[in-house]
Amino acid sequence: MTPEERLRELGLELPEVVAPAGSYVPAVRTGSLVYTAGQVPMVKGELPVTGRVGAEVSLEEAAEQARICALNAIAALRAEVGELARVRRIVKVVGFVASAPDFYGQPKVVNGASDLLGAVFGDAGRHARSAVGVAALPLNAPVEVELIAEVD
């Protein structure tokens, strides 16, 4: 089953690539690696949830937002390589979580992204990862996710 077929099976549709909010591009390929820019959980040009996790945003809400970030990253990846069947491996994921000072569940938040990547890419979606707590993210987003993928 291709990643596109898995997306359909999951009832998901890739969104349009989120337009950059600054002087950068959504994805860059160098050799067999594609690096995506950090993706915030934009849905149709809007952030459905804002604030810091552990304060205004619950862990569960943040994990869902991380899933949306991963979907946006997959869209940027597909735009760069043409079709997701060209992805050999998701190599690395970095998740940034805007965190209240006493919130320590960053890995659980970023699991939202990791779990989606596994569901879409199967074993090729298993990756190394960092989950980092930060004071704030662009646009007051609760989470931001970037990834590195190996492609044919």
TrEMBL record:
Pfam families: YjgF_endoribonc (PF14588). InterPro entries: Endoribo_LPSP/chorism_mut-like, RutC-like_sf. Residues 4-150 form the Endoribonuclease L-PSP/chorismate mutase-like domain. This is RidA family protein.
